[in-house]
Amino acid sequence: MQTRSIDPITIEVMGNALLSIAEEMSVTLVRTSYSTNIKERKDSSTAIFNEKGETIAQAAAIPVHLGSMLGICKEILGKYSLVDIHPGDMFIANDPYNGGGTHLPDITIAQPVFKDGKIHAFVANIAHHSDIGGRVAGSSSGDCTSIFQEGLRIPPIKICEKGKIKQDILDMILLNCRTPRERLGDLWAQIASNRIGEKRIQEVINKYGEFMFKEGMAAFLNYSEKKIRDGISKIPDGSYEFTDYLDDDGIELEKTNLPIKVTVTVQHDNILLDFTGSCNQVKGGINVVKTALYATVYYALKAIIDPDIPSNAGYYRAIKVVAPEGTIVNAVPPAAVGGRTDTCQRIVDVIFGALAKAVPNQVVAGCNSAVTTVLFSGVDPRNNNFFVYPESLGGGLGARPYKDGMDGVHVHVTNSSNLPIECLEMEYPIKIDRFELIQDSGGAGEYRGGLGIRRDYKILAPLEFASHADRQKNAPWGLLGGLPGKTGKFVINPGTENERILPSGKVSEIKLNPGDILSAQTPGSGGYGDPSDRVKEKIVKDLLNEKNSKSEVQKSYGFEL
Fold it and tell me: Which sequence spans correspond to the domains of the chain?
């Protein structure tokens, strides 16, 4: 029996090799996909897991997607005996309650990697599909009231068996989607991504041997655990609380200010996050399942404590999470979850807000922390094909302890890009009428909060609009005297006699006619530090760049022109 230990240099080399495999899988998925949501916006992620289903490496993509991949490998191992899993098998799933997923449009495909008849690892990828059926085109509007309204639920089942696609399973999935041709192309891309990952991992095993490969993965996990514990031990021991609020659930609009509360307890090199006090699960589709909560917590703590920690399951060992079942942060079926990302973003903000009391120099102010998602659907008159166009928009990143916040970016658990105007107008009967930063949307402070964005869509054919969004009533908070940022909103036909501001960010089946304009305006973010401490040259620069108006400068900074 081999007993020699693995040296640190080999651990580092092997760890980077696995990370590069995950990155190559990601590139393969993006470059071979069909939908604009993946090939242009990169709303997808890839990862590698060990034989137990523990995360080993995750490509730099979308943190919340880890939640959808966290559960699938263990679900597979729990559902299938090892004698029923073969080389070339691939498993597909999306269900938040029975498949390790977090919402239905995120379809995960996982594949075991065999060597000499044994499973040594899993490769997995996830892609946000533009439609997976359900009540509303796009399958993720914020006003669904049950998981059964949100689309096709897929438990872990084989999509490929011994290297061959199972056509009956594929046919069943495509029949339940409004855009089957696009779905087929994206599923093929996911399968291709896994095959690349399988091949590359087998090459690593052949190079180092089975023993060294297994020991290397174990050592890589231990290294991450040591890193996170070292970081936690530098935080003062104690308990730190913070509460922030979601606007509404899109259904019961009279019930506003839905609380998300956390108590973070630090003791030596362990950290506990207790979400007791958060509101009960709601009727609308902004509930979060436990896997999404875990992925969000792991991101938030890594970002604060040590961003250089490798993204693997080793650092999870120092983290404990308490979340009562039936609450908005640990929902039970049949709660709707399509817009869960808005809640995940707020979970990050409350973790940041709590730890700002312990390590204020490691935390940013309140961010736009919503995924302002627009969903357009209809028939394109240029080709008579039905289409679904989803896009999530960025906003302000909270001011940092040493620098202004970033403008018009995705924050926290999302990381997709905007769809370039040229691609949008080529693919869909929509024209971008206006695309700009929103003046004065960043909170004042010694360091100014990042600005939200305004994107006006001019409709060229009869369409339907749906969305999920938040921070349209509750503003992003400032830190250490910084002022809050501005909220967002959806406006139909702004500046006309037919102007209409939507009462909630969570709507569906809004009819739009040719010539209408839908203006999506995203939240800014909070400032950091006392506005009176801001350097005057920066105030003047913001004026010249039209990030602040004269009236805002006079009001917030007391700066006389």
Answer: 8-227, 364-561
